[in-house]
Design brief:
523 residues, alpha/beta, 6-stranded mixed beta sheet, 19% strand, globular
Length: 523
Amino acid sequence: MSHHKSIRLMISFCVTLFLTVTIYSCQNNQNNNSFSNNNGIRIGISSENLIFEEEITSLAEQATKKRVTIIPKGSVSLVNMACKGELDAIAIADEMWPDIKCPSANWVNTSGTLYQSRVQFALPKTTAQSLGWDNKIVPRQEILDKLKSGEIQLATTIPTYSNSGYNTLLWLTRETIASTLTPEQITPESLKPLQPIYQNLGKSSESTGYLAETLAKDWPENTLVALYRFLYAPDGKALYHHGETLSLSKPVTLIEVKPAITVTPTWFVTTENETLKTQLIEGVFNQLEAENPRKFQQIKQLNPPLPNTVTKEVTPIAEVHRQLLDNFHPSVRQKRWIIGIIDASGSMRGQGYEQLLAAFSELLEPQKAKDNFLYSPDDRFSLIIYQRNDAYQIPLNSQPGEEISRETLWETLQKEVKPGGGTPVDKGLIMGLETAQKIPSDYKLEIFLFTDGQFRDPVTPELLNIYQSIQDKNPELTIVGAGGVNTQQLQQLSAKLDARPIISQNASETLDELLKAFREAQI
């Protein structure tokens, strides 16, 4: 095969790899009536494994004579769903996540047809050349030293929610503590040397795809990026994102490091139905490579073999993973102050306010926050309520910038705030921004506006002046649509305040996006 054909083949593969929407062919639609009943099969596939979507669907339908629905989500989301009994099988990025999220699950690991991938570092070519990293295998200690000194910054995904980000954290931790880790070695004190890296990240996201899209728009010269190997074009001039080729404004150097950060995508059959379990093991996952060996060959092309001088480290035991994740936020990341500006007007009654309470329970109930890796004892919160003709901070008579416990805020929000009256969003925003002025500068400042958008434009010269006065604190503003959302109004407000909009008419989708924003606000 010619060089040009090989490149086209690789690009074609990457386009296929990151399709995140299940597409059924006309033939599948015609055959739906042939399935024995409406009790279909649900299989979760993470982005690393979506290349096998067609084969998994076809083999599962043949083996079970039932309709198959593919759920494309991140590995952690899929494991959470499987832990709740919502999926029959999962194809995820790394086998560690089930041990972390639900260690008592009795799942079958069908790892007979695994492939190897890895987390790949990349840096703008001019910076790589100035560091002497162009065409060099760089030791981990050298990477760590440059990151800790601030000479370069790290762009990575969230370690507590994303496989690439977690494996990067583990890789750095092993250099700081020991290559062979025990749970007892991972403590807040032992992780402190990583604080300069994670408190000064260049860019971060929950999703490798979203991070790739962000970097394609702006990849700073001093930013070292940790993404999957198969996201990069071979010449370092583009990234692949959800089936598209995103050209970079500057060429980057793919940097080999030692030891390598390797990832092993894994398949689990999670159903408790013994008949279905056998059908999926024998008829689907054991047959996957035979169904299309060419795709496995393509994967090898996108993940070239490691140089002989580069070693891989053995995956630690599950207790090490849990200890590292439990200690990451309390030990490593910057402490943050979240200001919630909450619409409690009459139009928020019902689903809108219930949705808001569900989201805040994940942050303000300590055990829930810990279970979801959203907890740090140093985090602080201020909640501003606006309704009728005014805005006020809860609990009543508390002062802006006052340290209030999670428990007190959660109890007040549930018991004392009742939706009703008008929507003075301008007063809520002004009080929230004035509160932000009083937050100490050593906190990362996150502002969340929760509203259905049923109001007139609140952006006035007074509001803009206050907003400009806190820009030196580098606040991140997120506008969350809840209830019966006026999408146009919220989009316009987001644009004027340079805010991140989270807008959906679907309550569960909005909640998922809001929790994603909470997670991404952590680092």
